[in-house]
Design brief:
Number of helices: 5
Number of strands: 6
Strand content: 15-25%
Distance between the termini: 57 Å
Number of domains: 2
CATH class of the largest domain: Mainly Alpha
CATH topology of the largest domain: Arc Repressor Mutant, subunit A
CATH superfamily of the largest domain: Winged helix-like DNA-binding domain superfamily/Winged helix DNA-binding domain
Structural class: alpha+beta
CATH architecture of the largest domain: Orthogonal Bundle
Shape: globular
Radius of gyration: 17 Å
Strand order of the largest sheet: 1-3-2
Helix content: 40-55%
Largest sheet: 3 strands, antiparallel
Length: 150
């Protein structure tokens, strides 16, 4: 056995540990939602998550998916992003490491694209220090028109 190396926990393992510590039973729907969210690269809508959950576990209903997402959001395990003015919340895993990305959203077709920018992160950090304000988290959503719609 090698010493000094801490195995890296996956987001799904972390989510299950947090649920257990909070006294929340895993349940079939919640477990399926965790598995789907863990497999995604970027944010998905609840109906899209439900579609993939139903592919894996046909008996899980949309209401169960929404309840699971609400619990995961309340426990800080997923980020809920409101990307459209008329609704359209999307969900993605909140990495325990704090690693994250931001989003470009097309107002015409609804396309969502992830982006990261170290300079933007530095600006947010500098604003926090200058304002003597501890920033616990942030969401950056840039809205406009994608290349296909422009």
């Amino acid at each position: 056995m090698r010493t000094g190396i801490i195995p890296r926990m996956t987001w799904a393992e972390h989510a299950r540990d947090v649920l257990s510590d909070a006294g929340v039973k895993p349940g079939a729907a919640r477990t399926a939602v965790i598995d789907v969210v863990a497999d995604q690269h970027c944010c998905l809508s609840a109906p899209a998550i439900h579609e993939e959950v139903r592919r894996r576990r046909p008996g899980v209903g949309l209401a169960s998916v929404y309840r699971a997402l609400q619990t995961l959001t309340e426990l800080g395990l997923v980020h809920r992003l409101d990307l459209r003015s008329g609704g359209g919340a999307r969900y993605e895993p909140a990495q325990p490491s704090g690693d994250h990305h931001h989003h470009l959203v097309c107002g015409d077709c609804g396309k969502v694209e992830a982006f990261s920018d170290d300079q933007l992160e530095n600006v947010i950090h500098n604003v926090s220090e200058a304002a003597s304000f501890r920033v616990d988290g942030h969401d950056v959503v840039l809205r406009g028109r994608c290349e296909g719609c422009a």
